[in-house]
TrEMBL record:
The lineage of its organism: Bacteria, Pseudomonadati, Campylobacterota, Epsilonproteobacteria, Campylobacterales. One of its GO terms (molecular function) is glutamate:sodium symporter activity. This is Sodium/glutamate symporter. The keyword Transferase does not apply. The chain crosses the membrane at residues 6-25, 37-60, 96-121, 159-183, 222-242, 248-270, 282-302, 308-328, 374-399. It is a multi-pass membrane protein. It is found in: Cell membrane. Belongs to the glutamate:Na(+) symporter (ESS) (TC 2.A.27) family. NCBIfam families: gltS. The keyword Transport applies. It holds the Pfam family Glt_symporter.
Length: 405
């Protein structure tokens, strides 16, 4: 096996190629446009498959400069915070609560299905948790953390980390592929229309709702916005480091998100500076695309081919379960309107993959059918913060069952 290691610059070039190829294919393939498949997903899967063939057929493994990925992720979540004022957050209100109920109940459903299927097949029920809410709603980070726990005493499940990474990888792909088509189908079937229209001059419009809207940006304004990003990310990463291992430990991106919210609203409250939403939207859109392209093109499809049959069966069942849940529960609870359909796309994104995938799904859907400002407020907050807390509590509760004693 020959390993080719790409440095920072080669990795950055590969990311750009992923997005350019994905955009070109999406532009010329009606199926992808019709079902709102995000460009990073399209390009990323193509490159991941190429790298898979390279490794399996030609014995050439390509590795990347992984350190480039996290800064893009943190920058994206910082942009979410800098784009959300308290007035907009209050608009979540009742819909935020209703969506939260559907999301939290689904955590239980994922684990019940996982444990039930694995127990029925005579397998370790820990497989059910690992291919349940731990990875499908928690993503790679949560999967790695719990994989370490299950690998040690008292569980001693030696392949826990491998199972977690494979499940999270599958979820990332499925979450990106399902959200747009399901939401688009609901919007078309019920002839749903946006409840509000975005305005070019409105500062309350969510920055990610129209990713290709014309934006007037100057060097001075861009440097100011980048300064806000740098400050928020510095404070967020510092807090994450200081609270690591404490009772208030949270993912670094959550601290960056809420630091961004605090910075934006403090500047506004004291009438110091008005955040340039459209400019923040450009930076956020670019960061999100770069992060997703990197995450998806580096998927280890070789590990997916090694999945045991029970895990493949369970992941297939979990896919059907989330389709039914978002279609008949999330959509119904949230009001069966256009915003509810957009929330369905978001729920698919972080209910099977990750919050950036959820936002990418929203971008694709709203660019096609029209804006949903409330969905862009609710989904990042729910997927980036509340679901992590609820998931940790849910997993802890399940581990107290006699089955795991």
């Amino acid at each position: 096996m020959v390993t080719i290691r790409l440095d920072f610059y080669a990795t950055l070039l590969a990311i750009c190629l992923v997005l350019l190829v994905g955009g070109l294919i999406t532009k010329n393939w009606k199926f992808l446009r019709k079902y709102d498949i995000p460009i990073p997903v399209t390009g990323g899967l193509i490159f991941a498959f190429v790298f898979f063939i390279s490794q399996v057929v030609f014995g050439v493994k390509i590795t990347f400069e992984e350190s480039i990925k996290d800064p893009f992720m943190l920058m994206f979540f910082t942009s979410v915070g800098l784009s959300a004022d308290f007035a907009s957050l209050k608009k979540g209100g009742k819909l935020l609560v209703l969506f939260g109920i559907s999301v939290c109940l689904f955590l239980f459903v994922q684990n019940i299905v996982g444990i039930g299927v694995m127990s029925a097949m005579g397998e370790n029920p820990l497989l059910g948790l690992l291919a349940g809410s731990i990875t499908l709603s928690g993503g790679h980070g949560t999967g790695a953390a719990w994989g370490n726990v299950f690998s040690a005493d008292p569980y001693n499940f030696s392949i826990a980390i491998e199972v977690a990474m494979a499940s999270a990888t599958y979820g990332l792909i499925a979450g990106g592929l399902l959200g747009g088509p399901i939401a688009g189908r609901l919007i078309t079937k019920y002839n749903l229309k946006p409840t509000e229209l975005a305005s070019e001059n409105s500062t309350s419009d969510y920055a990610f709702a129209e990713p290709e809207k014309q934006r007037l940006i100057t060097t001075e304004s861009f440097l100011t916005s980048m300064g806000l990003f740098a400050f928020s990310m510095f404070v967020g990463t510092t807090i994450a480091a200081l609270t690591k291992g404490s009772a208030i430990t949270m993912p670094t991106f959550v601290w960056c998100l809420f630091t961004g919210i605090l910075v934006r609203n403090s500047l506004s409250y004291f009438n110091i500076h008005q955040v340039f939403d459209r400019e923040v939207g450009v930076i956020g859109n670019v960061s999100l695309s770069m992060f997703l392209a990197m995450a998806i093109m580096t998927l280890n499809l070789v590990e997916l081919t090694k999945l045991a049959v029970p895990l493949v069966v369970l992941l297939a069942i979990q896919t059907v379960v989330i389709i039914l849940w978002v279609r008949y529960v999330t959509f119904s609870i949230c009001g069966k309107d256009y915003d509810a359909a957009c929330l369905v796309a978001g729920h698919c994104g972080f209910g099977m993959g990750a919050t950036p995938t959820a936002v990418a799904n929203l971008q694709a859907v709203t660019y096609h059918f029209g804006p949903s400002n409330i969905a862009f407020i609710i989904v990042p907050i729910m997927g980036g913060f509340f679901v992590d807390i609820a998931n940790a509590l849910t997993i802890t509760l399940f581990l107290k069952l006699p089955l795991f004693g």
